[in-house]
6-phosphogluconolactonase
Amino acid sequence: MSVRDVVVHPDATLLAEATAARLLTHLVDVQSHRSPVHVVLTGGTVGIKTLAAVAANPVRDAVDWSGVHLWWGDERFLADGDADRNETQAREALLDALGDALPPENVHAVPALDDDVTTPAEAADEYAVALAAATGNTGPAPAFDVLLLGMGPDGHVASLFPGHEALLVSGRSTVGVHGSPKPPPLRVSLTFDAIRGAREVWVVAAGAEKAEAVAAALGGASESEIPAAGALGIERTLWLVDVAAAGPAS
Ligand SMILES: O=C1O[C@H](COP(=O)(O)O)[C@@H](O)[C@H](O)[C@H]1O
């Protein structure tokens, strides 16, 4: 049976540091009985802060990064190296610091806008092929070991926004997103099918502006209203929040 836990940390900095410590320990634990390990990264404020905290944590050297594959839950459809790409921010926060320990072929960035890939749908299709290849083409996406998700104040996770048609896409692992209410408007996202194929889903959220969405998601809101409510792991769904995001009841 899937378990849901909520862990509240004092502030955004401690939330990021505790999430980083939790992630590193979890990777070490999983590597004691399974390889490779598939991790899905998130963009966003706390997501990137968490990656920087991983880079600064000495336990990162206890992880065998050659056996870790990194994916993204969503990406802003921009040119390679654009400062607003989640990949660019993740490279600056963590991947560059890992250096040779992390083989480049283990880093599965969402295709960027270029001469060959000109629409979010093309990028999504290419990413779906990469995801399926990682399963040996036996399924649409790996059973991710940990899937990290930030959450916007509107309750969006990855690039699945409230009321958006991308929420309804099923039977495939990725979707091209047009008209994102948060800039940039063009994005690529994992679908709920791919998200819900993860063993563990960790939603990280900080700040009072997220409190209403956290309460709604945990209080049984529909996923069309609050997409974070539909982000569930097969074995565990973990909500990692700070006091402000947990709201007055915490
Ligand atoms: O645009 C995005 O926003 C969300 C949440 O970001 P935050 O700054 O409010 O924490 C993030 O999860 C997503 O990956 C990103 O593309």
